[in-house]
Structure formats: structure tokens, C-alpha cells
Amino acid sequence: YTEAWDADKTSIHVMPDTPSILLAKANAANVSHKLYIQAWEEAKKKGYDMRADAIPIRSAKASRDIASDYKYKETHEKEKGHYIGCQTAQEDPKLSWAARAMLLQNDRIYRKAYHDSKAQVHIPVDAMSVQAAKECQTLVSDIDYRQYLHQWTCLPDQNDVIHARKAYDLQSDNVYKSDLEWLRGIGWLTEGSVDVVKVKKAQELLNERLYRTRPEEMKFTSITDTPDVVQAKINALQISDV
Known about the structure:
flat, 242 residues, mainly alpha
């Protein structure tokens, strides 16, 4: 089966300029890593020529000078002591403005006027606010709140005293539970209580034996002359082999 194919494989010749062959070569060139970096490798072999006045070098130097702290402060150091136009610091507007801002931000100077005047306040003793504060202090004072009143003397047969005693007796826990003292130590059987009777009734309702009667326990006698029995006998005689 494969003998003819093996013989034909050695005799097949494909032209090198067919479209499929050219497309395969182009795809191989596109995906070739060696061809992809060939130009870069050849450029590295040639070396490079970087002059001192090249644009990238000059840009790097300028960036370094700008970022340098020494170059940043060089102009300021040269201009120290060469201010012209102000003989004192008070005449310089910038220094005056800085001193004014410092005074405004100083907390001690900000509170100086308050501390100087807080001890010079004079309030009359009969002012409305003082009187209101005194009344408020009296209301919230614990001493006045807990001041005991004088002892009252009441007759024992007064109506309000009798009514208070009855109210105290009704509210007293000992009097409220005094009618249960005679029950202490007395035994009690639960038979006949409401809960026991209720449980028994529920048990009778759920009892399967009382709810249903089994068929074998029922007495049943079949009637021999009923139509279905007669018809059954006739059918048995018709299909009887005897």
C-alpha cells in the first residue's frame, strides 16, 4: 500500500518560486529572532561617537546643574550683604511683613491682652447672672437636696394613717405571701390536676388502638344469596373443567 508512495516521494520536485514557498520564506524571516536583532548587532559592532557638545550630554549637564544644591544656592550666597535701599530691618518691607506674620502666629502675644485684663473684671453682686447662678447652685446642691424635714406627729386613728397602713400591707411582700404559709410542707399528688387530665385526653385522641378497630376483630358473616355471590357461583360453574 505504501510502496508506490515511498517511490513517488523521491521523484517529487517543487519549484522554489511558487507562492507557497515564497510565503513560507517570508513568514520565517518575520518570526526569526536572529534577523530581528541583526541590525542592532551590526550597529553595536561599529561602536559609537559621543562628543562632549552633543545634545544629550548638554541636556544631562544642565539637568545636573539645576538639581545641584550648590548651584541652586550660588546666586544667593553671592548676593548676601549687597542689599541696597534699607538701612535697618524695619525699613525693609519684606522683613517687616515677616515680623508682623510672626507676631500674628505667636500664641503668647495673641493671649497677652486677655491675661492682662482677666484680673480687672468687676461684677456687681446683685447682677442677674450671679443671682441665677446662685439659684442654680442651690437647686443642684446635694446638701440642700438631702436636708431632712422636721418630724411630724400624727394620731394613730386618723383616716390617712389607717389608709397608709392598709396600702403598706397590700404592698408588703410578707403580707402578700402570708396565705401560702399554710401550704408549706403539705404533699400534693398530680393525679387529677388540670395538666394531667389534659395529657390523658390528648393521649386517648392520639391512641391508634382506640382510634381504629382491626378488621380481624370485627364479626362478619357473608350472605350467600346476594347477587354478586350468585353471579360468582354461575361463573365458577361455566369455567369449571368438570
